[in-house]
Amino acid sequence: MEYRNKVVVVTGAGRGIGRAIALAYGGRGAQIVIADRDEEESQLTKQAVEDAGGSGWVARTDVSQPEQIVSLMQNVVERYGKIDILINNAGVSEWKDPYELSVADWDRILNTNLRSVFFCSREAARWMKQRGGGAIVNIASTRALMSEPHSEAYAASKGGIVALTHALAVSLGPDGVRVNAISPGWIETGDYQQLRPLDHAQHPVGRVGNPEDIAKACLFLTGSDSDFITGTNLVIDGGMTKKMIYEP
Questions:
Q1: 198 vs 171: CA distance, rounded Å
Q2: What's the Cα-to-Cα distance from 77 to each of 54, 80, 85, 124, 216, rounded to whole Å?
């Protein structure tokens, strides 16, 4: 019952990994702030959180807009009086030939994926430190460590999150705020049953990941038993990035 009545802000909670994270905390009695641009999907998450026994509140937010981030955190504190946990999950991706990648493309991806993590963390930490601290988890990606063609902006944003995580951990540590990152590998957010045996076989654990795998890691990193863990990047990929694959 460690998370009962904790206030947990989850960005990008309207679907996928973000929704699973919201459900994980909600099922343990937390009060979930669903910060997402998509009102309809956010309402579905809210209903699922409440069905799981938690309390959900939709705060429509575009994290690529810093002024909306400031308003989000202020509104959370006005409503609940505190912020205990922040999960920076919101992100966008686009695979585009680097010769065709525009400045607008680059800015949209970096502002949404990376810049938002800094501003969300800073604004949440302003309130966390007033109550003795808190915990932040930034969702990065194994694409911070490895790549495929045409992923430059996305890879840069996720690599930046890993570096930003340890920088924030050092800066915010004296305020009692722990900051960690999770780098998911292949996490299937669509139809898991459509995956091929070959897809699962690429992973030493024998399966592709699911959003609940990341949610469980968030619970671990933000728990009181993990109070000696900060500044780390936890790779959760079923061992995929450790397996050497040779094409025939």
A1: 44
A2: 18, 5, 12, 9, 26
Place of tokens 């992923």: 151
User: Rounded to an integer, what distance in angstroms lies between the CA atom of residue 127 and that of residue 7?
Assistant: 12
The pTM of the full predicted model, rounded to 2 decimals, is: 0.96
Contact 63, 84 (CB under 8 A): no
How sure is the predictor about 245, in pLDDT bands with cuts at 50, 70 and 90? Answer: confident
Would you list the DSSP string of 79-137?
A: HHS---EEEE---------TTT--HHHHHHHHIIIIIHHHHHHHHHHHHHGGGT-EEEE
How far is residue 196's CA from residue 182's CA, in Å, rounded to a whole number? 26
What is the DSSP pairing of strand 31-36 with strand 177-184? unpaired
Domains of the chain: 7-242 (3.40.50.720)
Could you list the active site residues?
A: 154
d(CA 54, CA 57): 10
- The answer to whether 87 touches 24, Cβ cutoff 8 Å, is no
pLDDT 10s digits, 161-192: 999 999 999 999 999 999 999 999 989 998 99
Q: Is the pLDDT of residue 247 over 80?
A: no
